[in-house]
Amino acid sequence: MNQQEPLLEVDGLHTGFTIDGDMHYAVNNVSFSVKPKEVVCIVGESGCGKSVMSLSIMDLLPKHNGKIDKGAIRFQGRDLTMLSDKEMNHIRGRDISMIFQEPMTALNPVLTIGFQMDEVLMNHTDLKADEIRRRSVSLLDQVGISRSDQIVNEYPHQLSGGMRQRVMIAMAIACQPKLLIADEPTTALDVTVQAQILELIQKIQDEVGMAMLLITHDLGVVAEMADRVVVMYAGQVVEDTDVDTLFHDPKHPYTKALLRSIPRMDEKQEELDTIKGIVPSLKNMPQQGCRFVDRCPEAMDKCREIDPQLGEEAQNHAVRCLLYDASFPNEQKQRGVGS
Amino acid sequence: MLIYTLRRILIMIPILFMVSIVVFSLALAMPGDALSGQIDPTNADPEYIEERREELGLNDPIHVQYGSWAANILQWDFGRSFQHQMDVTQLIGTRLPNTILLSVMSLIITYILAFYMGKYAGRNPYTKGDYAVQGVNYLMLAIPSFVAALFAIFIFAFQLGWFPSTGSVGSGLEQGTMAYWGSKIYHTFLPALVLGMLTTASYTQFLRNDMVESAQKDYVRTARAKGTDENTIYNKHILRNSIIPIVTLFGFDIASIIGGAVIIETIFSYRGIGELLVASISNRDSAVVMAIFLMLSVATLIGNLLADLLYGIIDPRIRVG
Hints:
Chain A is an alpha/beta fold. Chain A has ten helices and twelve strands. Helix content of chain A is 29%, strand content 23%.
């Protein structure tokens, strides 16, 4: 690993929602960084705070109840949480852009594809209208949309889900951003289309030379795309390492459980491994101890009492688990005593 | 689009036929007839009455009466008003421009007020300004128009003296001059405002709610992610979506505004169709009543057609071939 300056540095981020007057953190003390041109995958089950985390970076949280409470998000050294809406608008779409999960609803139904494409370039360049339109058409070509010169005059409902996601990608790369955040970009698509879209994203990431933060719960996608993986559980980072280490030497019981639940071609198996139970909801988050303890096959009594810290287990490998906590006495690390 | 419109117009023919039967039956069901409103039965020779009845065709079987009435209408002859001693078409012709002016002004006031109030409240939901707008809305919805009309006359005409309380035009003005039209608009303003009150309230609320809802939509988030500023997001992305339900209501309003005009015109003694309708009903001037009812039906049908066509223009998903 080279020791480049990180492009994006999330530092102690706390993002929460006000529910019935109380603040509940969906993202709790999350820190990680993305280097230029690096692909970082954020994995975890639904409800782990992955999307909230990505929306925090873009400052796109629902305004009425969502809020970044503590922490910093440094992009090229600037703390994004300190910027005004206007300053953020200069960054959104130009330096950082985003692709969303739902291509069916992410485009405005009453505006033409062309208008919605042009908008990015109108916001961030001084080009003339006809030049912008030419660029939009060629961007659509670039993401593999045929008859792009006609598609610009059509409306979102005339396109398929896969095509809409291509349009979203075209918009996202229009200004050649330094960072692309893709929040489960293929989840809502057909399996065959998923592969095409991933391939496209990978190709474009390579061409444009941008860094990417890919949010997914599909470990197959992680293996395919990631340089580095951040595993999240219940709003916290539980493991952070490079992709090879994650697949070959996972440490955290949650990561191991996730990997076990991937169906394998080379083993005969009647029943798929699953992780019992569900992610605790925002309002029922355990206040003390490890958040995974109720579902953890290796839980100990102490896990209910001590908040595990995210510690460097090895070079480039951080884990949030008492089992790997150097300050926790080794003789007490008897597995499977707890639940 | 053209074929669709033509088809819709063709469908109107059977509807109008049925409406005409209903209108005709209603006129028959009204106590008295064209004759009884004109003569004093206690004072007239029964033979003369019988003679007149025969002459007017009132003794014919009902279907024959309907047939001759309908046949005349197809030739644009709506009969004669006994009360005013003139052709119904001519009579309506003198009143219709006033009602059209009233409706158009009312719609313009409604749209301007609702657009700005709704847009403001929708962009700043749950603020003091929003609550103020909603308070005004509830007031406008809750007060019956005849009460509001009396209040308006009392406050703006009698107390403040800003507007005239009755009539549709000042006296002694030559038709067609600027002063004449100025006076007309001046006379129309207050009734138009009261007439548009109910629709203003519902439009404002519609627009506000739809904007609040649209602001949560994914495409708004996409627009923000592109670095689009809030003004453009509201004016292009949200408003363009939220205006759809309002535009479609426009067609339906044509009918409800003429309906409301009946009350408002009567209170303001505004010489329009509504006032004529009320007067004709009390005078048993059934030819006029039937003609106005038919006219309202046609207006409603055309309004609905307009609404559907507008819907297609403004919402690409519903665009018709």
